[in-house]
Design brief:
By secondary structure, the chain is an alpha/beta fold. It is 35% helix and 15% strand. It folds into 2 domains: 247 residues, Type I PLP-dependent aspartate aminotransferase-like (Major domain) (Aspartate Aminotransferase, domain 2, 3-Layer(aba) Sandwich), CATH 3.40.640; 90 residues, Aspartate Aminotransferase, domain 1. The strands form 2 sheets. Strands 1-7-6-5-4-2-3 form a 7-stranded mixed sheet, with helices on both faces. It binds 4'-deoxy-4'-aminopyridoxal-5'-phosphate (PMP). 4'-deoxy-4'-aminopyridoxal-5'-phosphate binds next to loops.
């Protein structure tokens, strides 16, 4: 890996972060006249902990890492944007990303005026490691990977990801938003081995907390420190921090059960979909959704909309002609989906 000073934008390296009123006093008791808050309307009158110390300790213990290897964001969309802002000089630097993949890497790149060199996955949606590394040039700061990938649903092979990490001197981000549905596949236990690895995870999927907006980035402390310096001081609100603490305590077994049910439903759904004459292919999935191929994706999509069932038309995405992406729902929702599809044509 290149030295971090060489990878970071010079203005970020020089940046003096905003120091919030609550940075100087960390006690919980006191007469707080430092932050121009309103004394009324407790507990919402107080700013949240900008460093999210308690929640970080809790999540780090749960994930088996140190607090200083963990960044918490307003969804994992926040660290996606911050990584561009920290490392990529607008109009000058570029990133490499796989194609097809999650759309926010492109959006965050575009808002930061960063070029994305897209590298097609192979026909079975795996990494073309040589092509990814060949797309790198002097100005490439980050390679974006996603495993399990969205919208394809499959995990990339960890050996291939590792070859990209060790074959590149900049950062490699591996977005593991769906990793809880693919037990044993996370690279998190190996974080220490790779100084240039950033792993993204989220509470939006298996944990069922998309509405709370809580995402994670894991990396070596020096990278986490940079993201923390440039984030909005109070990026996680009081309710999110409290509720996440609460649900981490209460819902661990529940989440394990949800995952079990959703994986069983995914198999059952695939079996039912296979029986439909207009479903040509169901791509293997390691996530909580299925990508299916049909000769007339738009018509199937519109038919389901007419039944108030909303899925995602991915037919205009690279390598995904004719493809629809279907989230695995509850047993009842999946039954409704299958019934609606059986009534098609
Ligand atoms: N990464 C991937 C691959 C996703 O599919 C999504 C959400 N669809 C995200 C990140 C963003 O998740 P969050 O809710 O944590 O912002």
């Amino acid at each position: 890996m290149k030295p971090l000073q060489q990878l970071l934008r010079p203005n970020i390296l020089a940046l003096k972060p905003y120091s919030s009123a609550r940075d100087e006093y960390t006690g919980e008791e006191g007469v707080f006249l430092d932050a121009n808050e309103n004394p009324y309307n407790a507990p919402y009158n107080r700013y949240p902990d900008p460093h999210q110390r308690r929640l970080k300790r809790r999540i780090a213990a749960f994930k088996g890492c140190e607090s200083d290897q963990l960044f918490l964001g307003n969804g994992s969309d926040e660290p996606i944007d911050l990584l561009f802002r920290a490392f990529c000089r607008p109009g000058t630097d570029n990133v490499v990303a796989i194609d097809p993949t999650y759309g926010m890497y492109q959006v965050a790149a575009a808002t930061n005026d960063i070029k994305v060199q897209q590298v097609l996955l192979t026909k079975d949606f795996q990494l073309d490691v040589e092509a990814v590394l060949a797309a790198v040039d002097e100005q490439t700061k980050i390679i974006w990977l996603c495993s399990p990938n969205n919208p394809t649903g499959n995990c990339l092979r960890n050996e291939d990801i590792e070859r990209v990490i060790t074959g590149f001197e900049g950062l490699v981000v591996v977005d593991e938003a769906y990793i809880d549905f693919a037990p044993g596949r996370s690279l998190l236990p190996r974080l220490q081995e790779f100084p240039n690895l950033v792993i993204l995870q989220t509470f939006s999927k298996a944990w069922g907390m998309a509405g709370l907006r809580l995402g994670m980035a894991f990396a070596q402390p020096a990278i986490i420190e940079v993201l923390s310096r440039i984030k909005y001081p109070y990026n996680l609100n009081v309710l999110t921090q409290q509720k996440a603490m609460d649900l981490l305590e209460k819902n661990q077994q529940e989440v394990a059960k949800w995952i079990e049910v959703l994986l069983a439903e995914r198999s059952a759904l695939a079996q039912e979909l296979q029986k439909l004459p207009f479903v040509n292919l169901i791509h293997p999935s390691d996530a909580n959704f299925l990508l299916i191929r049909t000769p007339d994706a738009k018509a199937v999509y519109q038919h389901l909309i007419s039944q108030k069932i909303i899925i995602r038309d991915r037919s205009s995405v690279s390598l995904c002609a004719g493809c629809l992406r279907i989230t695995v729902g509850s047993p009842e929702e999946n039954k409704q989906l299958i019934q609606a599809l059986q009534a098609y044509k």
